[in-house]
């Protein structure tokens, strides 16, 4: 039986909980309070362009959110000649998300209006660092292997180098070290991270890589998926910017779930980086970031 979510007015609590009425044929019920980036406001409207058929969620593009107020005006005016943004990417391993972002920057269609000017890593021999060197991207070692080591940078030195390169945004793409306070303060609202679960679930110190997917399966969660959020002084606690749901199937293994989530990460991160490079991130007065639609400046996701 199809599950239909019709146009609904949603009243959210101060904590960000909300209730949506879902119709099952002739019956209806209210969903349990849920956390979602798309539904955090004192009062907003949610419209779904299509139904939820056979348990499948609608695509991200079917969500249209109208929020009461924003800290920046969304009057539809946008500078047609937006300056190309300079990006610094942080990795610890193979760097598959980094590679997708870089490929978007150098593609012939100019899908990402950005330029990766630096690669920062705590593992100078990782696959991401090798890819950067092969593409002429400078590689920096951070943090220092040992406090007194002559190799690597201190937090203050790192901030200085990023400023010298004119970095606009810092993108964490599988970087496993905690970002120092000095960097967070130097680049407020300009550092993004991607996490392989739907935060705030399965996040925090020690939850990374395959550990996340094992925890999701052990919990019985029906959905997982990547989250992109702004970075603060703690692990995985910054404001959520974008999420994408990935269905968990009954006989999933952590490896199988990880592959499907990673495939979605590659798409979502490029979409978000495209938006930040086009200056389409708008902040509501309550501090929640939203992505302005490229096609309709009055629609936010």
TrEMBL record:
Its EC number is 2.1.2.2. GO terms for biological process: purine nucleotide biosynthetic process. Keywords: Chloroplast, Plastid, Purine biosynthesis, Transferase, Transit peptide. PROSITE patterns: GART. Signal peptide: none annotated. Transmembrane segments: none annotated. It is an enzyme of class 2 (transferase). HAMAP family: PurN. This is Phosphoribosylglycinamide formyltransferase, chloroplastic. It comes from Eruca vesicaria subsp. sativa (Garden rocket).
